[in-house]
């Protein structure tokens, strides 16, 4: 017989005893099976008893191998594939320690990973590609020079689908890769390094995770993972021990959870440290090349592990899952290595790393780190030292920690020799200047392993008095002893604490001291990763070589000193020592080339322009007409103007011609002229204009022309031109005889275009100015404004005032020629309350308003609405509830800022009371009551505050007043009460009913025999209503019913 194949059983084990015997005369083995089972499960135990061994082999009595015996939580085949867990032969699952897998190299076995098995899922969410190994999907695994990449699936090996406890989508983990191992008797570690995954690609807070695991199956394991902890890209570290032999959530899942980590950490290194003696596990993690950290949380820093997890053989490996996220939203995780190693037993004579010492002090914990009492066995005093515990001031150490930084040791030459394992370490020295108050009074060196690492350290100069300073240096120890020495050149060396920790590779990636030759200013925003540098106006930004420094051991691309084109922002990628990166954006701009040519013509006096201002204005041709300067301004803000009525001419602004103005990218420039045209000459092309010439590198010659020309319905147009004479890039009709400020704005984009806008109605504030697009010009190189001229074509009745060219809007626009005066109205024009009796009385002379509301209205919370003068505002505002128990003041502010206070008084109308007794005419009513015995509405009234309020009866059908009393014709004894002629006792039932009560529905009064309207044809035989006039208000109405006297049977 070549192999033994037992069908894998479900998880709940029922013993099967199997006896193997051999007979040399038989060609096959004889099996005697003693079976003890039920229908639920079958699980074998091999005899002789092999305990919990998961892997092994079996031979007959002659030593012939009959194949491997592979046993785990489920039965396994004795040959490849190893059912449920691997496509390999079962004998290949177990790996000897140490296990060290470098995923950047082909490691063989599953997908080149070096792993030999996967955990078997008992409840796969999707059909497996290989039913024999349902937890292995090689299509989701790839390996290259960067490492091993696993694409996650939905589902996980957490909990179970049914039972207690339970959870959805569980016992369904795919690609939990691992190896088999014999559990060591001492401490051992399971480790991996992975690139911090991007959880943002998988939506929701769905327990997406990746990390390491160790266990016997999906229900008995330990894992250490980075797990998504929020809806964005937040994550935390989680250590979890699962034991599904327990039936409550509290006992089945033992966890430790950290707070959220930074999103960008560089690689994450995980390490599970197991202690089979203490039956416990601790988790450790390292971010980038930083210090290894213990996983701690409110639950503590370790978790118990069932002893059975450490018995015999088990599995360990890596995995990733996107748990409950949509199946279409996997995460992709890159692992770079994996290892299983026994923990070396430390030499008791060596200091344990990390090692922290409170110099001259006692045990003290700072930020979770224990600083041990100073061990003077390590102290080396080349010269005698002094230890002190005294306080000092000022003491400016953040967080206090006086028990750590008051104790100190100082001396001229001393040190420490620490027995330590050979290796690389980071050493931090903590120091606080406690005495000196000036630079140069305490200076000392720090040496490590005989090498100078801190030269001429001056605590006061570096940090100040009472401030904590910490130096950090890396050191390599090769002789089993770390030597530190402190040597003073001035006064004494001083230290308060020492830290020796595993070599910490820096994660710092800052750009420091970014400099360009000739720069005017530089601003660095480190959190945002931006640097802004300003160069002088006109600087060529296309070829600059900045210099800068970086965080220790960091590199950058591009490098310092390399030439860059800063016409657009340049991105520098800085890579820290730990491999993490940060992008810095450097923006270099040239300072605005500010220019200003302001010509108001107010300082020359009167005379011909080229004669009284020869250094400012050049008349182009001797034959040209002169321009008289007059002492008549064209606006309130000017006192002189130029008379253009003498004929054609052109005059140039000399200072601009001699010193052209260079444009700056994205910095606006403004060109304006005041024009007043009363009439044109007879020529069809007669016009007046001012213009500037744009000088650039092309063969074209762009212009900006402000022209007042013939055209439009008024006969006069303003026209902007960006090309040749009479060019047209926009027009607007204007009236003759009015002063117009013609303003154009240009902006060069720094490349090949200047965009223009214009207006005839500039406001004092540019943001309030409405601009009209005028198009653009194409330019080459860096453009300049090289010429400005003023000109008249023909003999025109026209003047111009100020001509201004500047990059400063406020120099160009100094007055608003068409401003509308601000409104001064601050009146309340209407005031309304929903409850008011009539419209409020507004007293505009005394700035008061009186409103009356009905009796019973609560004035404590009324909501007025009101209108104001145009442009005015009020406080309180309209529609806001107010307490009018006392007068309320409203402050009304006009558009021009003037203020008026208005007082609003609300009064509640006096109470109106009416007492009406319904009776016959002759009975004397009760005191205070008026009589009603059926008379028509308006017959009687209640007098109140000079007004009569009528009451009485009406027809319901149309509201017409009607007399239903006994005085009405053909109405018998009416409708008044107590109309029984005889005594009440002697009256018939019908008489009692008809004569006792006032009837509203007389049409329903029937005779004694029934069926006939008793009052038919009489006024009282109608359906009536009773009505009373009252002032508006809130009333309580009481209606009394009853018989006259002591008679109570009227129903």
TrEMBL record:
GO annotation (BP), single: carbohydrate metabolic process
Protein name: Di-glucose binding within endoplasmic reticulum
Entries under Pfam families matching the protein: Malectin
GO molecular function annotations of the record: hydrolase activity, hydrolyzing O-glycosyl compounds
Residues of the Malectin domain: 397-495
Gene3D superfamilies xrefs: 2.60.120.200, 2.60.40.2340, Galactose-binding lectin
